[in-house]
Design goal:
- By secondary structure, the chain is α+β, with helices and mostly antiparallel strands.
- It folds into 3 domains: 336 residues, Aldehyde Oxidoreductase, domain 4 (2-Layer Sandwich); 90 residues, Aldehyde oxidase/xanthine dehydrogenase, molybdopterin binding domain (Aldehyde Oxidoreductase, domain 4); 101 residues, Aldehyde oxidase/xanthine dehydrogenase, molybdopterin binding domain (Aldehyde Oxidoreductase, domain 4), CATH 3.30.365.
- Helix content is 29%, strand content 24%.
- It is built from 12 helices and 18 strands.
- The strands form 5 sheets. The protein has a 4-stranded mixed beta sheet with strand order 1-6-7-8, with helices on one face.
- Helix 4 links the parallel strand 7 and strand 8.
- Helix 4 runs parallel beside helix 5.
- The longest helix has 21 residues.
- The two termini are 36 Å apart.
Length: 563
Amino acid sequence: VWNTCDVIVESSYRTPWQEHAYLQPEAGLSYIDTEGRITVEAAGQWIHEEQKQIAHALQVPVEQVRIIHPAIGGAFGGREDISIQIVLALASWKLSQQGILRPVRIVWSREESIIGHHKRHPYKIEAKWGADSNGKIIAAEVEMVADAGAYEYTSAKVLGNATLQCTGPYDIPYVKVDAYAVYTNNVPSGAFRGFGGPQGAFAAESQVNKLADKLGIDPVKMRKVNLISDGTIGQFNHVYPKGVTIRQVVDECERRSEWPTISISDNDDINIRKGHGFACALKNIGFSFGFPEECWAKVEIHGGSEIENVVLHHAGADCGQGAHTAFVQMVAEACGVSIDMVRLGDADSSMNKNSGSASASRLTFMAGNSIKGAVDLALKNWMSEERPAIGEYRFVPRETTALDPHTGECDPNITYGYVAQSVSVEVDIETGHINVLDVVSVDDVGKAINPTQVVGQIEGAVVQAHGYTLMENLIVKDGYVKTSKFSNYLIPTSLDVPDRVDSVILECADPQGPWGLRGVAEMPFLPYAPAVTAAVYDATGVWFDDFPLTPERVLRGISNFKC
């Protein structure tokens, strides 16, 4: 098939570790409650999974373990794998067996947090892509190796998502992907915002930009030749579900950024070079590759002849993204009452059934479907004069399937969200410093339940991706984390972030989403790194296939290019 390609691009990419750097380090409390249950109060992302793991470790019935999520100061996937919970539970349980009913507390320092929990997977990616003279991508061959660290954690699942992302949102006739997660003596790797997507997207979007450059085709126009649509057959021999809007997203980003006639204010410094870059991506909404997916909700409607208040019971974790606010808004909308009439119960495993984790951009999508179902049942009971009127509903979406090890086929995801970004930069070729001037991020969220929170998610993802791409440099040597403080592991401050982020919300309804909504938490992260490296190439003529793009790395790359 390679003989039919007019141009072929072969590249080797490397992506780095990344630390979650959430505001709240690991901390928790454990005690025996009044019913004799081992109770753990700690920040997490999935109370029922934590409950199962603790019960398994202590060899006690699940019902004997109680998990409560207090307010959570950030997660980003960093609390997907538990940290202190089992130790807390074990300590309070053993004390109780000695007749000591005292609570046990653990609080990690920032240094302990950075050393103690998993990181984003570093990847080595070999990519070979070919296209014809019109820009149609004919074939893509990719090999990915992920550093799993000392334990598997979620490496296999992250790898699965990367296998989808490494060929992007494109209709490519011939695809071969080999992917490996390798045990090493390094710090364990695990879930992080994007879940393998940023690594795969960096390679895919960089390949498209390089092909466009070799062919002399505008990179946005080249994408439009290859974008998927409803019913496209993907690389797993799967059919993309209805609601594919990547073309609308790319069109809007092109229009909003005035691509390709973007103007940047003049800079008189002869060492400053200006450039623009473009990238796009898709992101799964919900668990993938056959992993069981469900979400439970219970709604109580109280009152006499009129509704006086509504209570929602739901186990979904709010890690700072505003999920609980969205839950309350959706209940109010479905019940036809004001927000101040709705109350959300505690995130407590003893009071709620399984609602799944705060991950995979799934929570608003899944919770919304379960809330709508519960409200419908409660309103039906209300009309039948039941007081309080109670509705309990377990939402189960359409099934996905696991990857067949022999054929490579599966139906990987329930549905998707779509994103495109345009980035403008200035590069100081004397110092290697990159200043990101402008970011246009267009995200199709289906329906923005809370537009202010959606903008916050987009801006937050862009800033976190900015740190990943330009600043954050986790150093691990002989299995030890050497950059375990914020003094030597640098994350963006208000002085480091892009000068302007234009957060553009598209609302193209997803047929499977409640009120047509999708998700948003991870999408804006995915295309940022390849958009920035494309902009740097436009400014300097140098492709950077690894990052972070620290001044030292940029200056070295420019110097080698000049030589």
